[in-house]
């Protein structure tokens, strides 16, 4: 409990590693199988965004306790060009690339708390929480 | 002491340096199980010779041309040692253990020993770090090779029945792999003139929007070729996740298990399996 690790996010294989580590953290926090799958999928979405649109960054993975409940806490940051209009980016089906446009909004629905901050020209920071 | 003098010192004392260096290597703990004495001496002699030649042309600029033979030698050495099971420290120790014998020579013959030792020290550090870098590049190349061989290994398309194909997907589906999977499936559809393709994702741990998008594209492409796709092996947790992600699978036929999908495919082709009453 209370393990905190930071992983680089520079290439596609890093996403695979991050997914595995998030799954381990979710198991350590004793999340159910559905919750585990949800947080892993959300991490995969956000990490891929950081890699494709943000040009890479890093991912912090922590299993911790929040309000007395076991939780997995993720912070994914990139130093890319940032998101101009977050509200628009959060709409289902909107994409600036060629994906389905469900990554951000979908990830938000998969987790218990979702915080996104973006500075134009400086990068994006996404915080994800999933608890028991 | 100018660079040429250092080269001269290396040349005149070659034999003693070589001897002391091999002793120092042995003291630092050589992997006697992986390398024999003769190879150690041969490697050391070659490096010392190359070092002498390179030093004669100047030791300030590690990036300049005269250092490329020595870099090439270190590259070969660290690649081959990495494959033999040496650790990066083992290879770097090979370089670093030259410090002691070389420094004591400089102390003996130089007018400004502190300055010269510092200079040589920096140089040997660079050489040592270079072996570590080569080691890492070697490792990365191995990892890449393995990834590529896994790509080929893990995409078998099998024919379950005349006209029914199945592709059991295992592991994580990222862009490169899905591309290969999709092509393999479409080719096999043409080759076997199949009507139905079952894509089984029981072994896929995560279905995110990119995986979903790839699956949908494959299904659409198969449809264009006149084949019907069934996606099977959607586990409960994956189903719940897909719903929350908001991915619409549209009119894609899905089944919980490969067996269900196969049964449905048989029905679709009007094939009836009958258990015989007597043997």
UniProtKB/TrEMBL annotation, chain A:
Keywords tagged on the record: Kinase, Transferase
Signal peptide: none
Pfam families assigned to the protein according to its UniProt record, in alphabetical order: HATPase_c
Organism: Pseudomonas duriflava
Keyword rRNA-binding among UniProt keywords: no
Name this protein carries in UniProt: Serine/threonine-protein kinase RsbT
SMART domains: HATPase_c (SM00387)
Domain Histidine kinase/HSP90-like ATPase: start-end pairs: 34-132
InterPro entries: HATPase_C_sf, HATPase_dom
GO molecular function terms attached to this record: kinase activity
Keyword Aminoacyl-tRNA synthetase: no
Automatic annotation (TrEMBL), chain B:
This protein's UniProt keywords: Phosphoprotein
SUPFAM superfamilies named in the record: SpoIIaa-like
Pfam families membership: RsbRD_N (PF14361), STAS (PF01740)
Domain STAS residue range list: 154-265
Superkingdom classification of source: Bacteria
InterPro entries per UniProt: Bact_StressResp_Reg, RsbRD_N_dom, STAS_dom, STAS_dom_sf
Name recorded for this polypeptide: RsbT co-antagonist protein RsbR
Source species: Pseudomonas duriflava
Organism taxonomic ancestry: Bacteria, Pseudomonadati, Pseudomonadota, Gammaproteobacteria, Pseudomonadales
């Amino acid at each position: 409990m209370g393990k905190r690790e930071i992983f680089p996010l520079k290439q596609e294989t890093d996403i695979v590693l991050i997914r595995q580590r998030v799954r381990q953290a979710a198991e350590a926090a004793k999340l159910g199988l559905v919750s585990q799958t949800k947080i892993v999928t959300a991490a995969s979405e956000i990490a891929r965004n950081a890699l494709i649109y943000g040009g890479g960054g890093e991912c912090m993975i922590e299993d911790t306790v929040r309000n007395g409940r076991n939780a997995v806490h993720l912070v994914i940051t990139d130093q890319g060009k940032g998101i101009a209009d977050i509200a628009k980016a959060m709409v289902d089906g909107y994409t600036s690339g060629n994906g389905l446009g469900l990554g951000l909004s979908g990830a938000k629905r998969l987790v218990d708390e979702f915080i996104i901050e973006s500075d134009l020209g400086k990068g994006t920071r996404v915080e994800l929480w999933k608890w028991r | 002491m100018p660079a040429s003098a250092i080269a001269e010192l290396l040349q005149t004392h070659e034999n003693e340096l070589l001897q002391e260096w091999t002793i120092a290597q042995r003291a630092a703990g050589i992997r006697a199980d992986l390398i024999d004495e003769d190879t150690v001496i041969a490697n050391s002699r070659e490096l010392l010779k190359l070092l002498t030649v390179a030093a004669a042309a100047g030791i300030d600029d590690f990036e300049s041309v005269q250092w490329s033979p020595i870099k090439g030698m270190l590259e070969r050495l660290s690649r081959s040692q990495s494959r033999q099971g040496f650790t990066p420290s083992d290879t770097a120790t090979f370089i670093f253990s030259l410090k002691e014998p070389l420094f004591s020579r400089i102390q003996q013959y130089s007018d400004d020993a502190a300055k010269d030792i510092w200079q040589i020290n920096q140089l040997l550090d660079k050489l040592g770090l270079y072996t570590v870098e080569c080691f890492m590049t070697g490792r990365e190349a191995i990892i890449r090779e393995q990834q590529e061989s896994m790509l080929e290994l893990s995409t078998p398309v099998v024919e379950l029945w005349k006209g029914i194909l199945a592709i059991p997907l295992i592991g994580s589906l990222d862009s490169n792999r899905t591309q290969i999977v999709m092509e393999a499936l479409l080719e096999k559809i043409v080759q076997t003139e199949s009507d139905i393709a079952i894509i089984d994702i029981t072994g896929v741990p995560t279905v995110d929007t990119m995986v979903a998008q790839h699956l949908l594209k494959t299904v659409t492409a198969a449809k264009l070729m006149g084949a019907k796709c069934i996606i099977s092996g959607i586990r409960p947790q994956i189903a719940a996740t897909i719903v929350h992600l908001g991915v619409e699978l549209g009119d894609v036929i899905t089944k919980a298990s490969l067996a269900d999908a196969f049964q449905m495919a048989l029905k679709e082709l009007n094939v009836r399996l009958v258990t015989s009453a007597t043997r």
